[in-house]
Write a structure and sequence with these properties.
Layout (H helix, E strand, L loop, with lengths): L15 H17 L6 H14 L2 E3 L1 E3 L4 E5 L2 E5 L7 E4 L4 E10 L2 E9 L4 E7 L2 E6 L5 E8 L3 E8 L1 H5 L5 E3 L3 E2 L1
Parallel strand pairs: 1-12
Antiparallel strand pairs: 2-5, 3-4, 5-6, 6-7, 7-10, 8-9, 8-11, 11-12, 11-13
Amino acid sequence: MEPETGNQSEFEPLDSCDERILAVINELHHRDDPIPNDLNDRVEFVLELEAALDAKVASVYRPKEFALMRGDTELAVNQGDPASITFDCETVTVMVTPRPSAAHEMRLDGWIGPEGTYAVEFRSPQGTRRASSDESGRFVIEGLPDNEMFQLVIRPDEALQREGLPAVVVTPAVRL
């Protein structure tokens, strides 16, 4: 496509060619990466939690792959168990690893940092399960439904809150 004016600079107003290009890009975004229908609900949920409950909403942390070079061979190295999910906010990190434990049931092994005692809630459409971490931040929840969406609510003990940790950390919902 030729611009309508051959010597148009970057600071001149958009012409019809620019508008057609932007329309195609807009269509591609709407078709291939639409805005989630529940985006407003998600944003309101996070704002309400952080404002009303002194809660922090953790995000899913995806570490980059590391590559080792040896001669002409490149080896990709992943950090940790590929089934593990790590949630992270400014002050708390939660890593969980789901493992099959029985027919159609899962076991969730978890670790919370910094070390300390935490109350852990596992929320799913099936209901809420509760657990407590040990002093190192480790916890286990067994008998969980397989292939189910879940969310964790982490509550540090009072000593950790005095050290600056938020009263509540909520993870986004993910599927086991």
